[in-house]
Design a protein that fits this description.
This protein has 497 residues and is mainly alpha-helical. It has 27 helices and no strands. The relative contact order is 0.03.
Length: 497
């Protein structure tokens, strides 16, 4: 064996091991140094990510906007957050609600859809989404969504009631009844559930509606008037249960109390029972107009079936007057009056038409004729008072005496108290006006027109805080968007908010 060569090889291997160990020790020290230096080194060449800072700032701004009520500002900040965190389903729902409140229905539908896809759309959010779809002109999609809610278990009856009201707004009567029955099973003593069921069933299964109307009248005295009259009409019309007339009578009761959407279904049923009934078609046209649809096709059919009929001509006149065709309206009103000279209503409508045309003197003559036809009926007397007060025409000699007479014929009517109060306010008798307005408000609280008049009265008296309180209430409780806008406009114009 070559020993010198072997010794040399061993020495070389030992040297390599020493060099390797030294090298690894050096590298270990370098790695530790790098681990310490890397964060600082990277900071020097790569800027910190803006994502966390943007989210923090937007979140803080959104919270501040939510506290201050700045819905548009909050909406803007939420959109910033969701750009970086699109998985935040609860924020999509909140954004959708803000967009709905700000009438951005397209945006609201998109945001609610995002929340739904993520699985974070609550049951309330589903109702908001349906509301947005309806407002965006997508009732069919809303109908599907609302029927899904109707089938959910473990839901508060109030949610079912809200669902049914939305279903009613898109004329899904079958869905509304099904939802209301679920609400009734959970809350049989809820007055609104009973009332809504009574309304819906009155035009599909009238005899089944009676129990719910009786419940509603007992549970909520403010509903007693309409419930009692509707129940009486259902009972009275049992003998003609298979005729168009039954649904015409029921529809007329409903329309008298402003339930025009349900009334329209009653009149539609009447036309289905008897397609030759001109009165049913004319009333269907009127209901369609009240529900912001045209209705002319129904009216023309009624005119073809009975060109000389009183109701057909009278309702034709109302249609053309709304279209701004006052001269044509007068022709139809004269035909209606000729068909029934003892109908004070057509004298009143001729007076209203002439007043709109600016002929107040001629209008007054027709209002006075209406009163002579039915001197013990408060309605034509009220029409005379309203004409005089609204146009400020002979208010001291005609308007105020007529308003007092109407109230004497129908004592306790908050609407007539409000009318008399309005006349007194215009006449400058603010203290007397206040007395009648407050009486009306006590009998019919949260009635928007009365609240607006109280606001105007206190502005005239220089009591701004009281005025602002009533105007805010008027805007809050307004069912009519025009009255809500009026209350807000008066509030803002006088320095309130």
């Amino acid at each position: 064996m070559n020993l010198p060569f072997l010794e040399m090889h061993v020495k070389q291997r030992r040297g390599l091991c020493l060099d390797y160990n030294s090298l690894m020790k050096f590298l270990k020290q370098m790695v530790v140094g790098l681990l310490v230096l890397i964060p600082f080194g990277f900071t020097a060449v790569v800027p910190m990510s803006p994502l966390p800072l943007a989210i923090i700032n937007a979140s803080e701004s959104a919270r501040e906007a939510a506290i201050s009520g700045g819905t548009k500002s909050e909406s803007k900040e939420l959109q910033v957050i969701l750009t970086f965190a699109p998985w935040r389903g609860e924020l999509w729902q909140r954004l959708g609600r803000l967009q709905l409140d700000n009438h951005d229905y397209v945006g609201a539908v998109f945001s609610f859809s995002k929340a739904k896809t993520i699985g974070r759309l609550s049951i309330e959010g589903t109702l908001w989404m349906a509301d947005a779809l309806i407002s965006n002109g997508e009732p069919d999609q809303a109908k599907i969504l609302l029927r899904e809610v109707s089938n959910v278990n473990g839901v508060d009856p109030f949610i079912f009631l809200q669902t049914a009201l939305l279903q009613r707004s898109i004329n899904d009567s079958f869905g509304a009844v099904a939802t209301l029955l679920r609400a009734y099973a959970l809350a049989p003593l809820n007055s609104e559930v009973n009332y809504q069921l009574g309304l819906q069933l009155s035009v599909s299964e009238p005899d089944s509606a009676v129990m719910f109307l009786q419940n509603a009248a007992r549970l909520d005295p403010s509903r007693k008037g309409v419930c009692d009259i509707l129940e009486a009409m259902i009972e009275k019309s049992k003998e003609i249960s298979s005729s168009a007339e039954r649904y015409i009578y029921i529809g007329q009761v409903l329309s008298t109390f402003g339930e025009w959407d349900v009334a329209q279904r009653a009149f539609l049923t009447a036309t289905e029972v008897n397609p030759e009934n001109a009165t049913a078609w004319a009333l269907l046209a009127e209901a369609a107009q009240q529900n912001k649809r045209d209705g002319l096709q129904y009216l023309k059919l009624a005119q073809q079936l009975a060109p000389d009929a009183e109701i057909v001509n009278g309702l034709s006149a109302l249609y053309y007057r709304r279209q701004g065709k006052s001269e044509l309206a007068l022709i139809y009103l004269e035909k209606a009056l000729n068909a029934n000279p003892n109908a004070a209503v057509w004298e009143v409508e001729i007076g209203n038409t002439l007043a709109e045309m600016g002929d107040l003197k001629a209008a007054l003559e027709h209002f006075e004729r209406a009163v002579k036809i039915s001197p013990q009926d408060w309605s034509p007397v009220r029409a005379l008072a309203h004409f005089s007060i609204i146009y400020n025409y002979e208010i001291y000699t005609i308007g105020l005496p007529a308003a007092r007479q109407a109230l004497a014929l129908n004592p306790g009517s908050p609407a007539l108290m409000d009318l008399l109060g309005t006349g007194l306010m215009i006449a400058g008798d603010l203290d007397s006006a206040e007395r009648f307005f407050l009486q009306a408000d006590k009998i019919d609280p949260n009635q928007t027109a009365i609240l607006i008049h109280l606001g105007q009265l206190y502005l005239a008296k220089g009591e701004k805080e009281s005025a602002f309180r009533y105007l805010r209430q008027a805007a809050e409780f307004a069912k009519d968007s025009r009255l809500r806008e009026m209350a807000n406009r008066i509030l803002i114009e006088n320095g309130g908010r």
